[in-house]
Design the sequence.
């Protein structure tokens, strides 16, 4: 069975600084996708970034980047130049290729302070 | 981009009554939609996978007779909470995959807050 673990229930960062959110996962599959979702106070889930396991290059989306370590089964999210609007719950998620089921971690609540 | 809507955004119902929540893909066709439940300050838990034109697939521990799912068209899935009780109060979120585009993301609706009194 696949599991996703987020060991940081809460994190805080000052505006304009950089913060890294941790995520580890466990699977025996070799082909899968990893995601980071953001859930702001509005509760709308927003996809932040996606990584295909077969790609060695780390995904980046503007201020968001990941550090994907496949052997270590680690998938951390780095947010650079943090903004107040980044305040939200962040969920790491996993999906085996050619399946539909998304497995979510328990989430990290990020607070960005001015 | 792909947009998923839910209706209603919040609902209050009395114990013993049933309530229906709609999930619509607005600008794409979704052969598969998903229903999640989220308790306060917790993660999303998949309840069931809704397949257009066939029966839903429920996750272990989810009562199919209590949470009725219908996916009658390529853009609409409904979740009916039957004989609701206070413990059914929660935030329900749907999502959909845009299979036609070969997309690998699930697009989420804004959620429905259900309060059973």
Sequence:
């Amino acid at each position: 069975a696949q599991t996703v673990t987020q060991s940081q229930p809460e994190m805080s960062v000052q505006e304009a600084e950089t913060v890294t959110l941790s995520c580890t996962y466990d699977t025996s599959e070799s082909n899968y996708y990893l995601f980071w979702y953001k859930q702001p106070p509005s509760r709308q889930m927003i996809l932040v970034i996606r990584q295909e396991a077969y790609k060695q290059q780390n995904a980046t989306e503007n201020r968001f980047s990941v550090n994907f370590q496949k052997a270590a089964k680690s998938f951390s999210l780095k947010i650079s130049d943090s903004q107040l609007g980044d305040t939200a719950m962040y969920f790491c998620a996993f999906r085996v290729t050619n399946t539909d089921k998304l497995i979510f971690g328990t989430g990290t609540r990020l607070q960005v302070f001015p | 981009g792909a947009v998923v809507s839910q209706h209603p955004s919040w609902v209050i119902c009395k114990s013993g009554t049933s309530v229906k929540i709609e999930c619509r893909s607005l600008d794409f066709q979704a052969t598969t939609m998903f229903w999640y439940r989220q308790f306060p300050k917790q993660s999303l838990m998949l309840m069931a996978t809704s397949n257009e034109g066939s029966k839903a697939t429920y996750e272990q521990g989810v009562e199919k007779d209590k949470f009725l799912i219908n996916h009658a068209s390529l853009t609409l899935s409904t979740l009916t909470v039957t004989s609701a009780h206070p413990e059914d109060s929660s935030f329900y979120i749907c999502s959909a995959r845009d299979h036609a585009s070969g997309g690998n993301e699930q697009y989420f609706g804004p959620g429905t807050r259900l309060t059973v009194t």
Observations:
- Residues 10 and 113 of chain B are 4 Å apart (CA to CA).
